[in-house]
Design a protein that fits this description.
This protein is an alpha+beta fold. The protein is built from 2 helices and 8 strands. The strands form 2 sheets. It has a 5-stranded mixed β-sheet. The longest helix has 13 residues. The radius of gyration is 19 Å and the shape is globular.
């Protein structure tokens, strides 16, 4: 059975019922082109006044649906890690991380979080491993991965 687009979904966590939905915003440039795409997850405790808005804006190394490469609800990084915001497990992991960072469902009325600040922790919980990197180059090559101080670039 198909879902209705923007209808909020339920997520029950430890006896508490949360409602959640996904949205997308962008600026239309014309000619079928867009810029500034942002995928947003909104979570609220049922019958509570507070809301959590987790936004994933496009940017360098960050992928969000743009009508060409990513499906609706997917966010990811250029190293191959992705999260599907349509999966209740992903929403639960984002909610748990926000609660762990101090979000209170009834106060303030709306709290905004940059989803990318939660991405690494949630991706690790969800098993979204990065693609394997190519093998290190030969010694003396200018494409090595460490500097003279032994710090990764």
């Amino acid at each position: 059975m198909a879902r209705r687009g923007k209808t909020a979904r339920r997520l029950v966590v430890g006896g508490a019922t949360y409602m959640w939905s996904i949205g997308h915003t962008h600026h239309v440039l014309g000619g079928g082109r867009y810029e500034g795409c942002c995928e947003t997850l909104v979570v609220r405790l049922f019958k509570a006044r507070g809301r959590l808005r987790v936004s994933f804006a496009t940017g360098p190394g960050r992928l969000v649906p743009d009508g060409r490469y990513m499906p609706s609800g997917a966010v990811g990084t250029t190293d191959g890690r992705t999260l599907n915001l349509n999966e209740p497990g992903t929403v639960r992991a984002l909610l748990d991380e926000a609660l762990g960072r101090g979000w209170r469902p009834d106060d303030p009325p709306v709290e905004e979080l940059d989803g990318w600040s939660l991405f690494d922790v949630v991706a690790a919980r969800r098993g979204a491993a990065p693609r394997e990197q190519p093998a290190a180059s030969e010694p003396g090559s200018d494409t090595g991965t460490s500097s003279s101080t032994g710090t990764s670039l």
